[in-house]
Amino acid sequence: MPLPFVSPPEGHTTVPETGVLAMRAVHRAMADLRRGTPVLVGGPDGALVVAAAETVGAEGLRELMAVALATPVLLLAPVRAAAVLSRPVSLSAPEQGAVALSLPEGLLTPERLRGLADPTAELLLPEQPERVVAPALAAPALALAKLGRLLPALVAAPAREGGLAESQGLARVAAADIAAYPPSAATTLRPVAEARVPLEHVPEARIIAFRAADGGIEHLAILVGDPVGFAAAGGTPLARAHSECFTGDLLGSLRCDCGPQLRGALHKMASHGHGVLLYLAQEGRGIGLVNKLRAYSLQDQGLDTLDANRALGYGADERNFLVAAEMLRQLGIARVQLLTNNPDKLASLAACGIEVEGRVSHEFAGNGVNDGYLATKAERFGHMIGEKG
Predict the structure, then answer these.
(1) CATH number of 17-181
(2) DSSP secondary-structure letter at 68?
(3) Of these residues, 294, 310, 319, 359, which one is catalytic?
(4) Of 38, 177, 310, 322, whose Cβ has the fewest other Cβ atoms within 10 Å?
(5) What are phi and psi of 337, to 5 degrees?
């Protein structure tokens, strides 16, 4: 039966129209960066014109220089900056924040910028950059790049505001709106389509698509049996927050355990009778498919999955589980038994208002290829591998 709209609970606020417009501005800015177009990141004391180092071309650099008030710098995450400067990379280096490097003329070309941004690219520097003072809006600018699933590496300069910037047609986004975007997008998720989709070994399944008010990528809820009715009758359905994995879920990659986790969760829900699998558009722990492939390349050079993500300039885990909590709330499911080995998921859903009645172990044996990956999840991410319950 069609899913009824579930009104917000007491204390839950709907994002006002001004907030929706702010989300749209962030979404447009992300898209422009992906296209290689500069954007303006604004703050109380001016604006920064930025372009993504991995996508900007000659025309984008020309547009950036037209509104720049000073020589551009390169903004990088701390771990990536240390590597570019040929300095030892500390495992305790912060995941957030920004480092600014000088950009001598020989480095201010699309090819050199891509090499500086991407640790998997060949890096032959005609001139060595130097560390300089980062501009005030550096951190939110890098956060914008990460929201767009781009390498957090930006060409940036203080912007000449007014007519020239407007004539260039550059998008402008406020730093405060960038910070507010992840929770704002999550809390505006609404069901937009649903259908019965019988699955192999799980004939009673429905899929519901959720979309946020900014029109961004959809997340899916796979309902096995009738978890909504079961919850309404006082039952506690099984639930799993599963981040999409193109290589594991679809191709059967041996590098991870995502495919077995996905299919195993559906089988457990079918045996239980009622369950909901939240299929979140957060590939590669939130870094996106392209960056996940880059991380795989770095893993082939000896890094584990955590350090590979950090070498790209990302945190160990960039996912936002408020998305999962909001989908459950929209479904009318406030209490679940969570299929997971990840303590962060337990804590995150509980912090977002979902009552986690218990954890159901969701463990699969290694296959000879992913043994190191599973060991890293246990040793460095704290996954409860080998524990029952």
Answers:
(1) 3.90.870.10
(2) B
(3) 319
(4) 322
(5) -100, 120
